[in-house]
Design goal:
This protein starts with a helix and ends with a helix. It has helices at residues 3-12, 91-100, 118-124, 131-134, 156-159, 161-166, 205-215, 255-265, 281-288, 323-335, 385-401, 432-443, 447-457, 477-482; strands spanning 16-19, 39-43, 63-67, 74-77, 82-86, 106-107, 141-147, 153-154, 177-184, 186-187, 192-200, 223-233, 241-251, 277-279, 309-317, 344-349, 372-380. Helix content is 27%, strand content 21%. A hairpin with a 7-residue loop joins strand 12 (223-233) and strand 13 (241-251). The chain contains 14 helices and 17 strands. The chain is of the alpha+beta class and 483 residues long. Among the domains are: 192-359 and 368-402, Vanillyl-alcohol Oxidase, Chain A, domain 3, CATH 3.40.462.20; 420-479, no CATH class. Pfam families: BBE (PF08031), FAD_binding_4 (PF01565). GO terms for molecular function: FAD binding; oxidoreductase activity. Belongs to the oxygen-dependent FAD-linked oxidoreductase family.
């Protein structure tokens, strides 16, 4: 059965269909349902931390999976610097094909993990090591093909600009199934430079991470400097553990330029010449994912390196956290070790062109005013309920602890790190006002427009999940006055 027939039959029969692009969805809402009907999901082939694209806890309702894993062709046109990429491809496959088919001159600004699927990543925004120069991945989408409830494949011209706006950062699963994206590729230099160094508390890590948040968002747009805060075993410490901050950076240029820029901007980091490594852009995709030394063909491997249960949350920081406050945060993380729980803080700076793009340009709204994003990540082995609950409870406590230090009114979050704790909507026709509790966190002022677009293209809410956009029916002043 062809895909358009599948969609049309599902719609006519009142079935529920969701699109999963192939990347990881931390709550599984692109491919699970709590509705009373037959569960029909679209799965593309990337990794999924919850595994709900192919299993269901509800034994009363059958789960049907439409597997799109092989819908993954990549057609690169180096002359026009564009590529059509089907939604089932992974980021690693995109990087490999774009770079090799352009003789090493082109790249694409998308996520650091190569096994993330293209479809979901681009539809939710897509942060990267090059976003400070080129914007999000979604900012560089110039066309798309989407299948809606009618079973007709639409492109940018036929879907209209409002829907095209919505599926770039607003999540495509609320509006249909994106089959492919046309990407605007970017020029990359023949040589880039990267480093990865670690500093612990005895090496003044608290002060360094405090300084980092002032420096990283203001660096040249060619520099991406991430800080990862993690707990490590340290027998020399009186607690037997230590806080370690990993500073990872990519510079779109050669070593001598990079050394000069870092020495001037962040001399406290104490980098040595041997800390910097030159490579090509494709090799940097391996480096940033901790895969240095592997051949570039490793980017074509669709199997995640690390597979475990996990929970993810996110925050945006708009004002610098003081050194004293960082000390309190690091102590709170260290104390979790007593329960054998580790929570990582993965922090990526904004600034650069991200400050220049208006919030309403596409549905992804997180722009000027954000210093950096924090991804909270806690993994654990197995799936035992008691162990899982301990980790989830600890994650929620850390998230609550961070409340005074992050954005507020609303406390914002990144849609690609879906968090069911922020709220959910249920039923066939959920309340727009109830959905605002999580919708405005993900989309800020763009949420209302997303709901209006949803009301126009999917008024019966066929494409739905626990955090999908609810339909909002809007009448213009002209329509009201003529009625």
């Amino acid at each position: 059965m062809t895909m358009n027939i599948t969609i049309r039959c599902a719609y006519m029969c009142g079935l529920q269909l969701r699109a999963r692009s192939g990347g990881h969805d931390y709550e599984g809402m692109s491919y699970v349902s709590d509705d009373n009907g037959l569960q029909l999901r679209a799965r593309s082939g990337g990794h999924d931390y919850e595994g709900m694209s192919y299993v269901s806890d509800d034994k009363k309702r059958p789960l049907v999976v439409v597997d799109l894993a092989h819908y993954r062709s990549i057609d690169v046109d180096a002359k026009t610097r564009t590529a059509w990429v089907q939604a089932g491809a992974t980021l690693g496959e995109v990087y490999y094909n774009v770079f090799t088919k352009s003789n090493g001159t082109l790249g694409f600004p998308a996520g650091l993990c190569p096994t993330v699927g293209v479809g979901g990543h681009l539809s939710g925004g897509g942060l990267s090591a090059m976003m400070r120069k080129f914007g999000t991945a979604a900012d560089n989408v110039i066309d798309a093909k989407i299948l809606g409830t009618s079973g007709v494949v639409l492109d940018r011209q036929t879907m209209g600009e409002d829907l095209f706006w919505a599926i770039r950062g607003g999540g495509a699963a609320s509006f249909g199934i994106v089959l492919a994206y046309k990407l605007q590729l970017v020029e990359v230099p023949p040589v880039v430079t990267a480093f990865s160094v670690y500093r612990n508390l005895r090496q003044n890590a608290t002060n360094l991470v405090t300084r980092w948040q002032d420096i990283a968002p203001k660096l040249d747009e060619n520099i991406f400097l991430r800080a990862n805060v993690q707990l490590v075993i340290d027998r020399e410490s009186i607690w037997n553990v230590n806080i370690q901050v990993q500073f990872v950076s990519l510079f779109l240029g050669n070593k001598s330029q990079f050394v000069s820029a870092i020495d001037t901007s962040f001399p406290e980091l104490g980098l040595q010449a041997e800390d910097f490594t030159e490579m090509n852009w494709l090799e940097s995709a391996l480096f940033l994912n901790g895969m240095s030394g592997e051949g570039i063909e490793a980017l074509l491997n669709r199997t995640p390196v690390y597979i475990s249960s996990c929970k993810v949350k996110s925050d945006f920081v708009t004002n610098p956290i003081t050194e004293k406050q960082w000390g309190e945060i690091l102590r709170a993380l260290r104390n979790l070790k007593e329960d054998n729980i580790i929570i990582l803080l993965i922090m990526s700076p904004f600034g650069g062109i991200m400050d220049m793009i208006p919030e309403s340009t596409i549905a992804f709204p997180h722009r000027k005013g954000n210093l950096y994003i924090i991804e909270y990540y806690t993994p654990w082995p197995g799936a035992e309920e008691q162990v899982s609950e301990r980790h989830l409870d600890s994650m929620r406590k850390v998230y609550d602890f961070m409340t005074p230090y992050v954005s507020s009114n609303p406390r914002t979050a990144y849609y690609n790190y879906k968090d069911i704790d922020l709220g959910r909507t249920e039923g066939l026709m959920p309340s727009y006002f109830e959905a605002r509790q999580w919708g405005e966190r993900y989309f800020k002022g763009n949420f209302e427009k997303l709901a209006i677009v949803k009301g126009r293209v999917d008024p019966m809410n066929f494409f739905r999940n626990e955090q999908s956009i609810p339909p909002l029916y809007y009448l213009s002043k002209e329509a009201i006055s003529s009625s």
